[in-house]
C-alpha cells in the first residue's frame, strides 16, 4: 500500500519576509500606504532602493554623497512592498519624521523611554538626536519636571544667644567602636567620647558627663536613637 504523493505549495521567500517585517509595525493600513507613497517620492530613498537592488559598490567613496551614511549598515537594508527597512526597522521618509517624533512623545515619556520605543520599529539618520531634542524642548515635560523636582527647603535652626544653650548629640561608629558626639550650636565646639558599651544608661551617663563640662543647657537635639529616647537620666558619672 502506498500513500498518495502530495504536492506542497511553497510560499515564496519574499512573501515570508513581507509578513515578518510588516506584522510588527504599530501603524494603521492608512499610515502604511502613506509611508509607501512618501517613500516612493523621496529621492534619497529611491536612490538607496536602486543601489540595493543593483548591488552596493566595493568602496564607500563610490557612493553618492547623500548615501554614504548608509555604508555601515548597507547589508541590513531590504526593500519589501516598496518600503525600505534597516533590519526590522522601517526607514522613515524625511516628510514624515516630524509626525513620527510627535507620535513617539505623545505620552510625554522621558528621553530614554522614547528612544527605546522608537528604535524597536523605525530608523532614520540622526533619529536619536531628534528624539532628545523634542523631549528637552517639550513645554509640558519642562513644567512637570520643574514641579516634581523641587527640592525641599532647608530647615534652618535659630542660633542661640549664648554658649551651651543648645546642644546637638549623635552616635557614630569608627573602626568598629561606638562614639558619642556633641556639638554646641553657638560655639560649634565638639566633644567626643568612646563608648565602652552602647546601652541607653551608658550613653546617657557619657552625655551627662559632657554636659557637665560645658554647663547648663536649655535644649538637646538628637536623632531618634533608642539610647537617647530611654528616660534614664540618673546615673553616676564615669571617671
From TrEMBL:
Please name one Pfam family that this protein belongs to: Integrase_H2C2
The chain positions of domain Integrase zinc-binding read: 92-146
- InterPro entries, from UniProt? Integrase_H2C2, Retrovirus_Pol_polyprotein
What's the superkingdom here? Eukaryota
Protein name, entry field: Integrase zinc-binding domain-containing protein
Question: What organism is recorded for this protein?
Answer: Mytilus coruscus
Q: Source taxonomy lineage?
A: Eukaryota, Metazoa, Spiralia, Lophotrochozoa, Mollusca
